[in-house]
Amino acid sequence: MPNFLFKICVIGLLVVPYNIFAQWIQVQKSAVNCLLVDSSTVFASNDSIGIMRSFDNGATWTAGDSSLRWTAIYCMIFKGAILYMGGGGVINIRSSVDSGNSWKQVASFSNSLGIFSFAVTGDHIFAGGYYGKVYVSSNDGASWADVSPSWRELGDVHALAVNGSYLFVGNSLSKEIYATSDNGQNWKEIDSGLYSGSSVLCFAFNGSTLYTGTADGVYRFNKTTSVWTLLNTDLVFPYGPNIPIGVNSLVLNGPDIFAGTDSIYLSKDSGSSWISVSSGLPPIVGSGVYSLAAGNGYLFTDLGPRGIWRRPLSEMLANKNVDKQRMDSKVARIHVINKNRIQYDFSGSAALVTIKLYDIYGRLIKTLLNCVQQPGSYTASMPRGISQGRYILSFVVGSKNVESPISILK
């Protein structure tokens, strides 16, 4: 029987705001670089505003010290009652003793173009920076020492983590990870098991177990064997089976692990399996989830130019199968034939198939297809007169979905 006889289709223009049915809600529209949740305050950095603060979980925001406007701020951390921020250019590191109302500069490294990460242990605060630099201060920032490992490649240090007396540091350009138990005086390389083309983007501890997010997925460290194991089960590669998915952020809420990639995933079994918790977020392929922060009963995420979003933790943790699961490329595929047509196919059983076209900012342009179909191969029309540029296709079959970045050329 021809495929079209089975279709019950609704094709046309449908523009729907993201948070009508969303579990996630947008709480700040400004583009942000980093997030920090401490006690009852949410901190966020914006290039034009500086440090923003919310005392009501994002419902309202206030700006701090106006001198930080037009300043690139990449990271924040508390050491006791002192709040530190790391930035670019001559700013480097500043501290605040009044929760961000006012700031003083405590470090400006002439050989560094930015501070990207912090970690605190005891009296020591560590800062990871540009070109492989790692600095340490034991006197609340009054002085700093360069304790950088002897890297083979000089990438930026976005990954720092502390567990007990150990500090771990990762290289954003290569698979190198080093550990020290004497505040950086001596380093040991611990990157056995990492993929050779990996780059280390973030760390997280679950108890004494160390996880790292890399350019090719999430790894777990075995302290007994000193070997890393890849945990990409259920983290499906959206760009194809052989193209890695970058894990830019990891955050823990008790034993539960959240990972930020082109989506947001949750693991409740130490990383062995993952489920998507992104329902209600705009498509984020091409931008990525660069910051996650948990606190005050919420998970907050920074979607870069798409602002800050939040979702109740209880909503995600109550049901293991929270959101639609991503599809394996063997189950369903979609690609552009030309600027007028797309081709897609799926296997399994009959299902409701929905295809939507978004711009790169997550705004819905058109619903291309919404109908029940039998498994097979099909084509669909792109909107007439679509201009040259980058777009995102959302392809949903039943309860599973995939998002694919595309480019339209003349």
Write the layout of secondary structure elements.
Blueprint (H helix, E strand, L loop, with lengths): L7 E2 L15 E4 L6 E4 L2 E6 L3 E5 L7 E2 L9 E7 L2 E6 L5 E4 L7 E4 L7 E7 L2 E6 L4 E4 L7 E2 L12 E5 L2 E5 L6 E4 L7 E2 L10 E7 L2 E6 L2 E6 L4 E4 L18 E5 L2 E5 L3 E4 L7 E2 L14 E5 L2 E5 L5 E5 H5 L7 E2 L5 E7 L2 E6 L4 E9 L4 E10 L2 E6 L7 E9 L2 E9 L2
Parallel strand pairs: 30-37
Antiparallel strand pairs: 1-34, 2-29, 3-4, 4-5, 5-6, 7-8, 8-9, 9-10, 11-12, 12-13, 13-14, 15-16, 16-17, 17-18, 19-20, 20-21, 21-22, 23-24, 24-25, 25-26, 27-28, 28-29, 31-32, 32-35, 33-34, 33-36, 36-37
List keywords for this structure.
Immunoglobulin-like, four-stranded antiparallel β-sheet, 1% helix, 47% strand, Methylamine Dehydrogenase, Chain H, 2 domains, 410 residues, single chain, 1 helix, mainly beta
